[in-house]
Amino acid sequence: MSWDALQGTTVTHFASPLEGDRFGLSIGRVVVGQDAIESTAAQELVGLLDTATEELLIVRWPTHMVALGAAAAASQRSIIPADVLMYWEVPASRLQPDDVALAERGLRTAVPTGADPATRRALEHVVRDSFRDYGNHYTANPRLDRQLALDGYLDWASRSLAHDPEDVVLLMHEDEPVGVATLTVGNDGDDLEILLAGLTGAVQGQGWYHHLLAGVGDQARARGCGRVIISTQAHNLRVQRAWARAGFRPFGAVTTVHAMRRP
Ligand SMILES: CC(C)(COP(=O)(O)OP(=O)(O)OC[C@H]1O[C@@H](n2cnc3c(N)ncnc32)[C@H](O)[C@@H]1OP(=O)(O)O)[C@@H](O)C(=O)NCCC(=O)NCCS
Asked: What is the Å distance from ligand 1's center to 53 Cα?
């Protein structure tokens, strides 16, 4: 979920038909805005969990609002702790390409010029390979099929490509796609948010991810964005080490729970 979609002062509830169709049950999303008042949000949340009709509500709130866990547990739904998302930021100026290292390793970054089938296949290949065993909030819920969760990531990446090919950065090794980042520009025009980013398993563990991030930095500067932001589950320590090395710092934490209607 993009950082912009988590902003606001209220508790919002909306249907999520794409996810519902994918997993074969009715799904809604509930978001407690970053600037909501905790005590009011707690009351609204418990009422909403009891009145909403969807079988599954995917609920997100700012992690510092520690009262909301108990509020959700006081509802008639069963609550599955699903993840904590950590948001990290870096000035775009810090993500600079190293042309010498790129040339030495046979690497380059590329932004597709169109959403042609070959580009789509390259994107899907990298996302499938890098996110294959990825633990996320869907996989926390035994009611949801893990394979369909991966399909969701593939869909999400393909939608970025279809929306605007410039929202995709590929890392190429000797003309083979080995890394991908999908992007969206925030509402204020200053943030370039990385929605998904990964490297194929075969090329991980040798410092190549930094080159993909530098390609994103190029895109940010080209679009006049001053900040690059990105998020992951708190347990994904490996990528957070890479972000710290690249100069990112954490600035937000968001809790996700799945609230299941009891039979
Ligand atoms: C996120 C991801 C791209 C990171 O890949 P990675 O290979 O670990 O990252 P790097 O390219 O920075 O490589 C760093 C590792 O290589 C090692 N390394 C070896 N040679 C290196 C070199 N010359 N320079 C830097 N690091 C080197 C480092 O020690 C480091 O290992 P460590 O984290 O255990 O200390 C990869 O884990 C991935 O695709 N994961 C699945 C998707 C995902 O989690 N995405 C993030 C959320 S969107």
From this structure: 42
